[in-house]
Structure formats: C-alpha cells, structure tokens
Amino acid sequence: MVEMQASIKNLTSQLDQRNAACSADSKSLDQQSEVLITPENSQSQSLKGSSISKYASQSPTAQLDSILGDLIPNRATLERILEYAGGQLHESWMLRPFSTIKIFDTGFPVGSTEKAILFIHESLQSRDVGLVSKCLSWLCLCLSELPKDFRDVDTGLPLCPEELISRLLTQISILYLADCTPACSINSIEALVLQYELFIAIGRPSKAWKCVRTGIDNAMLLGIHTRQSNLYGALWESLWIRDRQSSVILGFPYMVPDNLTLSKTDTDPELDALRRIASISGCISDRDRMRQDTPFSTITRMVEEIRQLKVLIPDERNDSVFAQPITYAILRLFKHTLNTMIHLPYSQFAASDKQFEYTRVEVLESAEGAIRAHQDMRDMQDTPTKCHLYDFLAFNAAVILITDLAAKETPRSTEEEERIWTVITELVSRLRKTSELLESEAAEQAAEVLENLHRACKGIYRGHKFHMQIPLLGKIQINRAMEQHEDVEASTTTVLLETNTYTFRVPDEHLTEKELADDWSAQATLEYEFNYGWRGPLAAGNHKRSVKN
C-alpha cells in the first residue's frame, strides 16, 4: 500500500512536469485575451439593449404583461410546441428534475397538453415572479427540443426557437433581479434547476454550472441546506448533485462540502446512484486540484466508491434495479465517464510501469462502455432528444479509443481493431442522424472530427489541413503534405492532439458564448495561445500513387 502511494505521488509529479514542459512555449496567461464567457442570464447583459431596458424600467407586474404580448407564441403554435415537446421531456434524458418541482405545486405539466396550457396561463396570471420564471424556464426546455423544420402555425414561417429562447432567458434574468433580494423564492431556485437542464441540453455546461451555483447561494440564504424534511431536502439534493457533476466536467472545485450533502440511505436506486456519482465526482475534483498532494485516503475512497458504483450500475440490463431503461443508460454513461476520468492520468505510464497496466484496461473498457450507453440512449427514442453534453461525452470516449488505436501500444488482433473502429463509425452515424433532425452543432462537428481521424489513421485522408479547437477537450490537427518524385506522388498525413483531459483537468479558459455549440474551426484561428498538459502525435501515414502524364 505504501509503495503504491509513493508510485502514484511520483507519477503525479511527472505529470506536472509534463504540463510545465508542454506549456513552456505558450504565452503568459496575463498576456492572453480576456475570457469570453458571457452568460445570457448575467446581470450585466440583462440590462443591455433598448428592448431589455424597456422591461427593466417597469415593475415586475408590468413586465409580466409585456411577456404575454411579446414572448409567448400564439395559441395554435404553443399547443403544437407542447404536444411535440411534452412527450420529449416526459421521456427525456434529465434525471429527477420534475420530482423536485412537484413538491411545491399540484404537479408539473408533463405529458398533457391541456395541463401544460393551463399551467402557463395560471403562472403568467399569478403575478408571482418566481413562478413565472419557472414557467418560462420550462417553456425554454420545450423549445430546445423542437426539430429544424418546426414552423409557426399561423404564419407558416420557421419558428427560430434559438432566438426565442434567448429572448425568454433575458426576461427570466430580469425577473430574477426582481426576486433576489435578499434571497430569491423557492420558485426561482427551481427555475434555476430547470435552466441548468436547458443549458446542459444546448451545450453550455459552464452556464449550467453558474445557474446551479446561484441556486445554491440562494438556497443557503433561505436555510434549505439545514432542513431535513422532504419538502426542502429534495431541492437541496438536486442542487448539490448537479454542482458536483458539472464541476468535475469543467475542471472546477465543487461548492457544497461533504457535511452539507445530507447523505442518507434511500430506497430509490436512482437517487442512490446519483448521490454516489456526485460523491465520486467530488473525489476526482479534489484529486485534480491537489494533484501530487492528494491524500491517499481520497484516492482509496475514489477507487472504492467507483467499485461500488459498478456493482450498483452493471453493464448487463438483466441485473439492473432501475425501472426506466433510459435512466439505466444515462447512469451507465456517467459511470463509465467517471471511471475514465479516474484512471486516464495514470494510464499513459502503463507502457513503462506494469503496475499501472490495469489503468489502461479500465480506460479502454469504460471508453467503449460510454459509447455503448450512448447507443442505448439513442436507440430508445423514436425522435432524438437534444443533449449536446451527452453526445460530447460519447465523442470524448471515441477520441480516447482512437488515440489508443493509433498508438498501437495495446496488443490487438486485426479483427478486434476493426470491431472497435465499427463502434466508432456507428457513433458517427448516430451523431449525423441527430444533427440532421435537430439543431445540434456539437453532434455535427463531433461526427466530422471522428470521420477525419478515422481516415487519417487508415491512411486515406484526402482533405486539406484540418484544425479544430474543441471546447473542454483540446486541439486536433490533421496535416497532409504532398511530394512528387518522377511519376510517383506521395502524401504524408500527420495527426496531432493536445489536451488537458489526459492529465488532471483544469478549466477551459477560452469558452465562447455558445460553448460546445460554437464553431470549433473558428476557435482554431484565434491568436491567443492555449496551454495543454498533454501533447502527442496520434498517427502518421504514407500514401503513394502513380501519376500519369
């Protein structure tokens, strides 16, 4: 045990040295451009613009009257939106958002268009600023699930849900300002939970993180974190669990300490699994922050808890205790993602230190397991549900597999190698299908990256220079050099990956407003330097062909 602890500390020191070496040529952070994180629900943005200023100068009651006239679609279009999106949200990929909401009113309108219309009408007529915020947040979720070809019933024109969501979020931020002194209401906190789910769906995890942090601040001011009753306990759990989940993905420290997580036994296996996932996420965040100074107790706790999570969430459906297949698939995706995060920093030393060979095995098995879980999630839906983050997690797993395939450090038969490539190309097909039906920039760009990596590794890439700056991952470059000698034309393709996800996660300092949904190729043209802890070639291949005059 002591020997293992010393080995881990030594390897983490080596990782830090690699980080320093890889970033030695980069410019100082003080010389870099300002971070481009501009949340749509920030106070500064909520008061900009003439139309927004018009609302900001009104009382909350007058603002609600303005909402009715300016932001809510006409009745026929609204009914069609709710008919389509209501079923989508009922079978959505969100875990336990609605069970929390139900505690505070007579029931959230899921699966019933009539109830949904009534909920919107009564909410907007109530003059309760928090309730209106919750209603509009839920309406944004509905709008986010609409397909590309959705049209306004009255005009026949495209509805442009992204623009409508942006306007609704601006109004929600104004209503929050009217409700946040000294602390906002329970309804407004629930609205923040729903906004978290919205931003996760549309690929803006840092904005989701800010929403849940704001919710935690207000919940603490109301004393919700100290109350054990079912009334407040469920809301508090929805906040701290989401804080841990988003923080580990973004590379941030979490906000709620262990002594305020209200840990308790529960007969609900889904809630038990989410608590365990949040706990492991916290351990990983601690490890990534402290690095070589991480207490061995944190590492052993992390390893033991992931072992227990594997027992609770098996890969075989027959052994599952979860009633809903979609829930089971989501939890498997989380499980495999966390297991990859735990072992990936150490797996790169497996070739030189055999005691860490098992970490590479864990990483590769979980990377493939994450893609399988994503496949099950998509296969269960007749119409795809939008969730940029889940698509991105599967994409991340595929990049890990490609990195290992290109390195050829893991012994495989030709048949096994082709089987893994099939898993990856099937993921590409699912991502393509999603982007065809929904406005899903992340899925479309992820599919393009994987296709080009596949071609490059197979030596059949024929494109020009390919350069992507991928949020929360890093930089991928594919270069193809041409040479001609007499009647033979030769091409050499090289692939370079730079990332922080293979070491210890740190925040992405250059997230743009749309985050995962932004143009990855446009980011690659920016002038400021990026610092990455891991850099290495994935593949280099040669191709020759005869040239006829």
Annotation keywords:
549 residues; alpha+beta; four-stranded antiparallel sheet; 20 helices; 4 strands; 58% helix; disordered C terminus
Q: What is the topology, as strand order, of the major beta sheet?
A: 1-2-3-4
Distance between the termini: 69 Å
Percent strand equals 5-15%
Can you count the helices? 20
Organism: Fusarium equiseti
Keywords: Nucleus, Transcription, Transcription regulation
Protein name: Transcription factor domain-containing protein
Commentary on this structure:
This protein has helices at 2-22, 43-46, 50-56, 60-70, 75-90, 98-102, 113-125, 129-144, 161-179, 186-201, 205-221, 230-250, 269-290, 296-312, 325-347, 357-379, 388-407, 414-437, 441-458, 520-523, and strands spanning 466-470, 474-485, 488-499, 534-546. The longest helix is centred in the C-terminal third of the chain and has 24 residues, at 414-437. α10 (186-201) runs antiparallel to α11 (205-221). It is globular, with a radius of gyration of 24 Å. The chain has a domain at 35-204. β1 and β2 (474-485) form a beta hairpin. By secondary structure, the protein is α+β, with helices and mostly antiparallel strands. A four-stranded antiparallel beta sheet has the order 1-2-3-4. The chain has 20 helices and four strands.
